[in-house]
Amino acid sequence: MNPERMSVRGLEYSKPIRGWMQGYRLAFNKKAWDHPSRSYANIVFDPNSMVEGVLYPLEDTQQIAKMDPFEGTPRLYSREIFDIETDEGVISSWVYIANKATISDQLKPDRWYLEHLLAGKEFLSEDYFRRLTQVSTNE
What we know:
Elements: H1 3-8, E1 17-32, E2 35-55, H2 64-71, E3 77-86, E4 89-98, H3 111-118, H4 126-133
Antiparallel strand pairs: 1-2, 1-3, 3-4
């Protein structure tokens, strides 16, 4: 959710948009390929939850290919299209979902990684941001 990280990765986008999905929750259950005790973010189906985030409208659709290597697509994450609710209406958007072979529920994210999500504070509800600050991390 960190706009600075998007720019560093070479993605050109217009104004970021607050978005959310009913029926999913944020999970830190995607195993890091380079560090066995670290996890990365994922979303998982949960009919009683909602996940919040940021949409970055890309300048052109080909830009998404620049993101795939950072996400390890298609081996570590798959890139799927979901309908995301926004204040501007529903927007079909790419979402990265961890592949089942990379999931473990016994892991935690590193603090530096969680900070990238917390950088999206202006796009998150107060409650959602507060819950993110309480995620247990590796120091």
